[in-house]
Amino acid sequence: MLNSVVSFFTELMRRFLPDPFVFAIGLTLLTMLLSYVVEGLAPIHILESWGEGFWSLLAFTTQMAVILVMGYVVATAPFVDRMLDKLVSRIKSPRAAVVVATVVGGVGCYLNWGFGLVIGGLVARKLAMSIKGVHYPLIIAAAYSGFTLYGFGFSATIPVLISTKGHQLQEQMGVISLSETIFSLPMMLTALIVLITMPILNAFLHPKNPDDIIEIDPACFVDKPHKSEAHHLLAENTFATRLNNSKILSGLIGVLGIAYLVMFVYKGGSFDLNKINFLLLFLGVLLLRTPAEYMSKLNEGVKTVSGIILQFPFYAGIIAIMHASGLVDTISAAFISISTTQTLPFWGVISSFIINFFAPSAGGHWAIQGPFMVEAARELSTSQAQTAMSVMLGNAWNDLIQPFWILPALAMSRLKLKDIMGYTVVIMLWVGAIYISSVLIWSYMSH
């Protein structure tokens, strides 16, 4: 039964799902059309809002790219690589490999979504290389599925944002402690349930028929040797080369970076994206040991973010159109109008899931949906913490089938979107059932 469902969605994706960039273009045109038909915004204003908003998230785009590149550097450092090799050597069966890839990706994303996206993909590729009979598209999809756990973790954007003094909605909702959101008992139990059941589901998705299994092609990862002038310089015994390969320089600047963060936390500072990137950067410097080794890994990591750099401005343009036209207001209001004190978090998950197709950045997502959800929670006397988490969970749920965030996994695996999306759709259905059940139980028990 389960294999039939997977086959149905896989074939559906193969026939009709375009590449992520084409998907972004299609969403842009759809948003323009909806803004005109539903909201009545004049075409000239639609075009203006799109063009003016296209580069509005440039700083945030850079932060997203940096967190992925720095995550790649840390995840591929020799020490981490040796740990992954030891883990992989203990796994013997294809289904066990799928379970491990899911858990590593999930735990990694819980700690930091950029690190988790990379380390999940890397361990999945290692497992596919070393274990015969592993269905490669599935194990990559399984590793990526762990990304949904970032919504409960240390880098969950919305909970971290509203726990910070001075956030944009502080006057309306106050400062919400992390103990009320990601570290509340209901959310920690939900995360645990996902972490336990999702690897089991993914293992059952593995094809039973050997003819249906597509194994990894190692030849795809053999790069042609290329010696540049820089490589020759590194081989020379010059003063410059000794500096490039100096462990003392890397160790000194790495320790200084970590020392600053320790001092920052000791003084009561709270982490934001810049501080997370700061940590990943200097942790990577320490793990890679020399400036030359760090730059080599950094250059590799840059290849994984090219799609994000290209597509993020298109989603910024989409967000600008939705904001100018009031389309998000309409979507949110439609769900809020049928909400009660107990069901507002449920409709928050559903509306957030829909909006995340158009605004896959949780920060940008919250900026346009958050004010309506916060006001609705106040009017209905619903918990602000539960309401905020419902938006976060809807975002993390939709990310399972949001082509934008799958880009790093595709870059590392050399697969196409249509190869893995059939599996992530099935996983999305299961995770959605858990999230919806969780917010409903949490809400009804609280009221």
Automatic annotation (TrEMBL):
<protein>
    <submittedName>
        <fullName>Short-chain fatty acid transporter</fullName>
    </submittedName>
</protein>
<feature type="transmembrane region" description="Helical">
    <location>
        <begin position="423"/>
        <end position="445"/>
    </location>
</feature>
<feature type="transmembrane region" description="Helical">
    <location>
        <begin position="182"/>
        <end position="201"/>
    </location>
</feature>
<feature type="transmembrane region" description="Helical">
    <location>
        <begin position="54"/>
        <end position="75"/>
    </location>
</feature>
<dbReference type="GO" id="GO:0005886">
    <property type="term" value="C:plasma membrane"/>
</dbReference>
<feature type="transmembrane region" description="Helical">
    <location>
        <begin position="96"/>
        <end position="124"/>
    </location>
</feature>
<feature type="transmembrane region" description="Helical">
    <location>
        <begin position="344"/>
        <end position="368"/>
    </location>
</feature>
<feature type="transmembrane region" description="Helical">
    <location>
        <begin position="312"/>
        <end position="337"/>
    </location>
</feature>
<feature type="transmembrane region" description="Helical">
    <location>
        <begin position="248"/>
        <end position="266"/>
    </location>
</feature>
<keyword id="KW-0472">Membrane</keyword>
<feature type="transmembrane region" description="Helical">
    <location>
        <begin position="136"/>
        <end position="162"/>
    </location>
</feature>
<keyword id="KW-0812">Transmembrane</keyword>
<feature type="transmembrane region" description="Helical">
    <location>
        <begin position="273"/>
        <end position="292"/>
    </location>
</feature>
<keyword id="KW-1133">Transmembrane helix</keyword>
<dbReference type="Pfam" id="PF02667">
    <property type="entry name" value="SCFA_trans"/>
</dbReference>
<feature type="transmembrane region" description="Helical">
    <location>
        <begin position="21"/>
        <end position="42"/>
    </location>
</feature>
<dbReference type="InterPro" id="IPR006160">
    <property type="entry name" value="SCFA_transpt_AtoE"/>
</dbReference>
